[in-house]
Amino acid sequence: MPPKRELQITRPEDRELKKQQLELASLESQLAEREVELATQRAELAAFERKYLAEVGLRYAELDELKAQLAERVAAENPNDLRLQEAARRARARAKATRSTAGTGKAHAQTTFSPTTEMKRLYRDVARRVHPDLTSDDVDRARRQQLMADANRAYLAGDKAGLTRVIEAYECSPERIHGDGAGADLVRTIRRISQVKNRLDEIGAEMQTLLASDSQQLRAQFGEVARRGLNLFAELARRIDREIAATNAALAEHAACVSS
Q1: Where does the pLDDT of residue 5 fall: very low under 50, low under 70, confident under 90, or very high at 90 and above?
Q2: Burial environment of residue 126 by CB neighbours within 10 A (0 to 12, 13 to 18, 19 or more)
Q3: What is the domain range of residue 168?
Q4: How many domains does the chain have?
Q5: What is the rounded CA–CA span in Å between residue 210 and residue 76?
Q6: 93: in domain
Q7: Which pTM value belongs to this model?
Q8: CA–CA distance, 249 with 239 (Å, rounded to integer)
């Protein structure tokens, strides 16, 4: 007689765990691709901004400073001409703005940090639950240190939702579930799925912000021109250099007229 086969029983929690694990694997693959896309977009945009600053932005700052100096000299010679006084004020404001944008100006005035009562309450709640000194486990401590860093950034930025996310990230983390077996594994998997989905949402929001930014719109314009075989960086640099030379000449001519 052939040997009897043992009855194979698959428990519902085992089936659900398998299904959730497959979903998690798919989501983690998507997340890896999206993280690469986001990192690439950040890097490309940062590279464009550095190039624009070096080849165009600093030149604009120099040009606007020279124009402001010229307008102020003319206005000083004509104190009763309100039109010239206003033109000088506008020129100085523009020079200040472009200098700030180019990063060549003096440090910005410090903004006032005035956290609301609700922000303070949330931050205290985070510290009570997440502070690294509240655990002796090395792995848990490392996780808490990262979360407290996130909490500090959110607090300084006045980001209430960011502080709330820190608490949720810790309380709902898979690592908070202890024990063995399909039940514990299922809960950990479900929590990990939630983490991955939240991160995918965050990436989507950041990508939208980057793509809608002024820097990205400018980069797209430069790219369109480049596809036609033109170097807009070089063309702008040459044009601004000509304006700088002309404005320097006007300043020198004005100084000569005043001294004569």
Answers
A1: low
A2: buried
A3: 117-212
A4: 2
A5: 44
A6: yes
A7: 0.66
A8: 16
